[in-house]
Amino acid sequence: MNIGVPQETHPGERRVALVPTSIERLVRLGVQVTIEAGLGTSLSIRDDDYKKAGATIERDRRNLLSSSDLTLRLRKPPIEEVAQLKKGSLHLSFLDPFSEKSLIEELARHQISAISMEMIPRTTRAQKMDALSSQANLAGYVSVILAAERLSKIFPMLITPAGTITPTRVFIIGAGVAGLQAIATARRLGARVEAFDTRPAVEEQVQSLGAKFVKIDLGETGETKEGYAKALTPEQLEKQRQGMSKVCAASDVVITTAQVFGKKAPLIITSSMIAQMKPGSIIVDMAVESGGNVEGSRLNEEVELNGVRVLGLGNLPGRVAVHASQMYSANLHNLIEEYWDKEAKTFRLDLDDEIIKGCLVTHEGRIWNERLRKA
C-alpha cells in the first residue's frame, strides 16, 4: 500500500499532515510513504529528514495523487483535485462535510472512500485518533496567549513596593476541550478565571482547574451522544445572554468557544453586551470560522467595538504549527495502525466498526455516513 502526502495549499496554512516520526512508525508496518517535495518547508523540516524516516520524495503533485492508495491531508482537498485521486482509494483529512456538499458528492462520484477527521467519535478507544480535540486543545491555549499579549494589563496579581496589582479577570464561555485548556492556561498565567457551560456536568472539571463556575438556569440542557453541547433554543440563548452580561461587564478578557458541530455557531455576545464592557477589554471569538459567537466579529480581523477589541482570528492551532502538526500526525498514524492488517499489509476498512461508522463519509460511490445523508 502506498500512502501519499501532498503539500497543503490553503493560504497561510503552516501545519502538515505527517511529520518524520510518524513516517518511521508507518514504514515499520510495511507502508510505502511518498510525500510531495517541500512538504515540511513551513516547519523547517527538510526533504532529507523525511528521506531518513523512510519516505520517498515526489515532485509531481498530480502523479502523487493518482498513484496513492491512501492520501493524507490536513485541510479538505480542492474540489478540482478530486478527479486526480486514484479510483477506489482512501482519503483522510478534515472535510467539513456538513458545509461542503459539492465536495462530498464529488468524492462519492469518483469512487473515493473518504474519512472525515472531525467526525471521529468521542469515545475512549478513539481518543488517540481524535484530531478535532487535539487541535481544539491547542486553540484554547493560543486564544489566551493572544489575549494576554494584546491586553494592556498583566494577568497575575503582584504585590510590589508601589502597591498591589489585582489579577486580570478572564471569562471563558464553553468548557469543552478548547475551553478547559483556555481555563488552565489563564490560571497558569495568574488570572482570576470564571467559566460557563450549558452542561452542568462540567462544573466539577471547571472547578478542578481553579476556576469559578458561573451558574445560569437555562432549563433542560445536556450533551449529544458524541459529547458535544446540545443546541439551545432561542429562549435559552436569550436567558444565557442575560445571565452572562454582568460577568462580561466585569471581565478584562472574554473568550467564546461555543460551537455546534455541523451547524452555524450560536450568537452569544451581542453588541449591547459589548457596550457594557470596560474600554480596553478583549474578546476572543474562537468560533469565528463557523459563523462566530460575537456580534460584529470578522474572520481574520481584529475590530474595535465601543472600545472593546474583538479578535476574530482563524486557524488558531496553525499559530503553534509545530506541535499542531505533531499531534495531528500522531492522530493519523494511530488511526492507520488501528486498522492495519499486518498479514496483508493494507488498511482494513472495517465497515462494522463503530469508529469507521462514525467517520467514513463516502464509500463505494455514495454518501455512506447515515447522519450526513439525513443532513
Describe the 3D structure.
The chain is α/β, with parallel strands linked by helices and 375 residues long. The protein is built from 12 helices and 19 strands. The chain has an 8-stranded mixed β-sheet with strand order 3-2-1-4-5-6-18-19, with helices on both faces. A 7-stranded mixed β-sheet has the order 11-10-9-12-13-15-14, sandwiched between helices. The chain has a two-stranded antiparallel ribbon with strand order 7-8. β5, α4 and β6 form a beta-alpha-beta unit. Helices cover 33% and strands 18% of the residues. α5 packs antiparallel against α10.
Short description:
With 375 residues, the protein is of the alpha/beta class. It has twelve helices and 19 strands.
